[in-house]
Amino acid sequence: MERFEDQAVVLGTVDFGDADRLVTLFTRDHGRLTAFAAGARRSKRRFGGALTVGTWLKAQLSTRRGDTLRLEEVSVVRSFHHLQDELGLIARSLYCLELCRELTRDAQPHEPLFDALTAYLQLLDQKQAGPTSLLKFELDALEQAGLRPRFDSCVFCGKVPGPRPRFDAQGGGAVCDECSGRVPGAVHVPVAVLEGLAGLQAGVRRPLPAEVRARSRELLGRFLTHHLGRKLKSVEFIEQVGVD
C-alpha cells in the first residue's frame, strides 16, 4: 500500500452503497483523481462536511488493489462558504469547477491550472472578482490545457483579421476576410471582441464592456463545445442566473 498527501479541490461526489462515497478530486501534484471514501457519509471525525463540491482540502490518499485510490483523511484548507451568498457566485464557481474537470485527464498534473482555480475561487469568495474575471480564468484554463484560441491574427494566413473578421471554432480562432471563403461556417464577430479577448490573453486587466463580454462568452462557448463535444452543464445555469 502506497500513501501520499496532496492539495485537492473537490470536483464532484457520488454516493456509493449505504455509507460510502466516490469523490472526484482535482489535485495539485497528481491531477484529476477519483478516490473511494469509505464511510464518508457516517464518519464525522475523518471527513465531517469537508467533501462538498468546491472545497479546498489537504487530502491523504492510499493506493490499494492495483489502481484503486482510497481517501483516508482530509483537512480543510478553505471552504469558500461565501460562495453560497449569491446565485452569481455559485454559477461562476460551478462553471470553473466543471471546466477544470473536463479540460483535465486522470493522473495528469496541471499545477498552474490548480493554482489558477484556487486563486479565482478565493477572489469569488472575497467578492473581489469583477465581471471580466470569468473570461480571464476561462482563457487561462484553455491555455493550460493546450487549447489556446487565436484572436490577434488569422488562423490560416497569420495576418491581422482586419475590419470584417470571423471566428472559426474548429480552426481555432479568428479568420480574416480574405480567408473567410475557406470556412463558410465561421461566424462574424466585432473587432472589439477579438481585441478584448486578445488583450486578456496578453495580461491586460481592463474591464470589458457588457456587450463585448456577452459576445466573448458566446465565442468561447462555441470553441469549448467544439473541442469537448458537448455544452457544459453549468452554462445553462449561468444563462439562467444572468452571469455575463
What does this protein structure show overall?
The chain has helices at about 85-105, 110-125, 135-145, 190-200, 210-230, 235-240, and strands spanning about 1-15, 20-25, 30-35, 55-65, 70-80, 165-170, 175, 185-190. The model has no long low-confidence stretch (mean pLDDT about 90). Helix 2 (about 110-125) packs antiparallel against helix 3 (about 135-145) and helix 4 crosses helix 5 (about 210-230). The protein is about 35% helix and about 25% strand. The chain is elongated and about 65 Å long. The chain folds into two domains: about 1-130, OB fold (Dihydrolipoamide Acetyltransferase, E2P); about 135-230, no CATH class. It has about 240 residues and is of the alpha+beta class. The strands form two sheets. It has a five-stranded mixed barrel with strand order 1-2-3-5-4. It has a three-stranded antiparallel sheet with strand order 7-6-8, with no helix packed on it.
How much helix, percentage-wise, in residues? 25-40%
CATH architecture of the largest domain: Beta Barrel
- Please, what is the CATH homologous superfamily of the largest domain? Nucleic acid-binding proteins
Q: Please tell me the total number of domains.
A: 2
CATH topology of the largest domain: OB fold (Dihydrolipoamide Acetyltransferase, E2P)
Quantity of strands, as a count: 8
- The radius of gyration computed from the alpha-carbon positions, rounded to a whole number of angstroms, is 20 Å
How many individual helices? 6
